[in-house]
Amino acid sequence: MAKVTISQIAKEAGVSKTAVSFAFNDPTQLAPATVRHIREIAERLGYTPDPIARSMTTRRTNALGLLLPQDIATALANPFYAQFIRGMGHVCGRAGMTLMLVPPLWGSMMKAIPHATVDGFVVVGLEVDRGEIQLMRRRDMPFVMVDSEAPDDVPSVNVDDRSGAQMAMEHVLARGHRQIAIVAIESGKGGHTEEYTGTLAARLGGYRAALDAYGLALDDPRVQLIEAPTSWAGGRAAFAQLWDGSQRPTA
């Protein structure tokens, strides 16, 4: 069966081809009754809009990209990303948009950005000086930063990592614990905490502030800090390492 065209719909509905295009791509340009009439004719004829042609006309894809730092399988093993994607999916669904997961292409997030057919990105945990952020700025691509120290001209969604970490450590210390373990996000810094930035640096600052109030320090032998991948397996391995060590933490 031949594919139904907008010319056929226009002829059947008694309107111009431009009106048919508006009915699907920019219905605010037409009266609601006209939009309903055109779409009813299109449905009866079995017309399905071509998504590629539609995006070329509107210059929109109605898709929002979540830039992932890892392949999709690895990212979904991270409980944070699993819940984050679920939340984004709910919002996109209500807005009539598609959520596209954008993992690294050939091992590079920067290479993935130009190939993603999306209207904008949500990026998590990247610092403003990263190449990916600079690339999106140069391409004038809309994006929102999450869990990052974003400049004033970039939309961002953040939590107060420093205060949260400080409150968590204060809670532990107030209950008398001194054999304490901190499991930090894997940083790639080789354990050099002085090189931490962003979320890691903020949380570490909170831990330090709480410890200092109790006369302790991060380098106290009773305080252990290890890094772990952000996955269930990474958490289990970190716990096993601490539990099998010579100094088991109590908190």
From TrEMBL:
Signal peptide: none annotated. It holds the Pfam family Peripla_BP_1. The keyword RNA-binding does not apply. Keywords: DNA-binding, Transcription, Transcription regulation. One of its GO terms (molecular function) is transcription cis-regulatory region binding. InterPro entries: HTH_LacI, Lambda_DNA-bd_dom_sf, Peripla_BP/Lac1_sug-bd_dom, Peripla_BP_I. Gene3D superfamilies: 3.40.50.2300, lambda repressor-like DNA-binding domains (1.10.260.40). It comes from the Bacteria. PROSITE patterns: HTH_LACI_2. The keyword Manganese does not apply. Residues 4-58 form the HTH lacI-type domain. SUPFAM superfamilies: lambda repressor-like DNA-binding domains, Periplasmic binding protein-like I. PANTHER family: LACI-RELATED TRANSCRIPTIONAL REPRESSOR, TRANSCRIPTIONAL REGULATORY PROTEIN. This is Alanine racemase. It comes from Kouleothrix aurantiaca.
